[in-house]
From TrEMBL:
The lineage of its organism: Bacteria, Pseudomonadati, Pseudomonadota, Alphaproteobacteria, Hyphomonadales. The chain crosses the membrane at residues 21-43, 72-95. Keywords: Membrane, Transmembrane, Transmembrane helix. This is Phage abortive infection protein.
């Protein structure tokens, strides 16, 4: 019975299908009741047509037969009327189940809309945080994007100046990072980009239409320059393990598309991006 109700209230088409069937059953039952109620009159007219006499069903001799016939009609009508009442109850339950189902769907749509709104509000707050962090990047009386753009050249020169040093690749990157980005608040900027990128991916997953795919990630990418993204990659390269990078590189795929991968320092840095080239 529970599965029957679930099927009947699955959607509007299923509900209408079951209701039509129930109305047909109730209609047939009602027609049968009407037919049984008319049987005495039909028999009377049949008697009249064949004999030309109008029968009397209320004579003393016929009262016993009429009472028996009435008991028969009552015995037949009682279960039929009970069945019709049961059908009406079933229809009422189905309609209530459908209303509850529609209410649950409406609540779910409302919850999804609120979740999307909260994520969207948080995302745009993070974009503001990215802008604020960029403005706070300062070095040699310069600030903002000028410092980030100059830092790319400084980072490359620092790294290339360690060619003869027998350090692991990551060690050289960290040394170049310290020389380039220390004491200029750029780490806060890259951390803000990381937070915004991860939330943008989460927000993209709430979009129902494939046309809007990567909408929030694209917004973030448009706000960043290739130099920002290049520096952001090496920020992750210096601060994340290889296992973490294997997860983050594909996750931030849309952002990396704006970066010229040929400008990366060594072939080992380019390997994670070969699938995008």
């Amino acid at each position: 019975m529970d599965n029957w109700f679930k099927k009947a209230t699955k959607d509007e088409e299923s509900t209408n299908f079951f209701l039509v069937r129930l109305f047909w059953v109730a209609g047939i039952a009602f027609a049968l009741v009407v037919f049984l109620a008319l049987i005495p009159h039909i028999l009377r007219w049949c008697f009249y047509l064949f004999t030309g006499e109008i029968p009397s069903f209320v004579t003393t001799e016929k009262l016993g037969e009429i009472g028996a016939f009435g008991d028969f009609i009552g015995g037949v009508l009682n279960p039929i009327l009970t069945f019709i009442s049961f059908m009406a109850l079933i229809i009422t339950i189905i309609l209530q189940q459908r209303e509850l189902s529609d209410a649950r769907k409406e609540f779910q749509r409302t919850a999804n809309a609120l979740e999307k709104e909260n994520i969207e509000n948080t995302f745009f707050k993070l974009l503001d945080r990215v802008d604020t962090a960029l403005n706070n990047v300062t070095k040699n009386q310069k600030n903002g994007r000028v410092v980030i753009d100059n830092a790319v050249d400084i980072f490359k020169k620092s790294f290339n100046g360690q060619k003869g040093v027998q350090w692991p690749h990551v060690g050289k990157l960290k040394e170049a990072r310290e020389e380039t980005y220390a004491n200029n608040n750029s780490f806060n900027y890259f951390s803000a980009i990381s937070s915004a990128a991860q939330l943008a991916i989460q927000a993209d997953n709430t979009l129902p239409s494939p046309i809007e795919k990567n909408f929030y990630t694209e917004l973030l990418k448009d706000q960043l320059t290739p130099e920002d993204i290049w520096s952001f990659y090496y920020f992750l390269r210096c601060n994340k393990s290889d296992e973490e990078l294997k997860t983050l590189i594909p996750k931030f795929r849309v952002i990396w598309l704006k970066m010229d991968h040929t400008t990366l320092l060594e072939s080992s840095d380019k390997e994670p991006f070969h699938i995008y080239e």
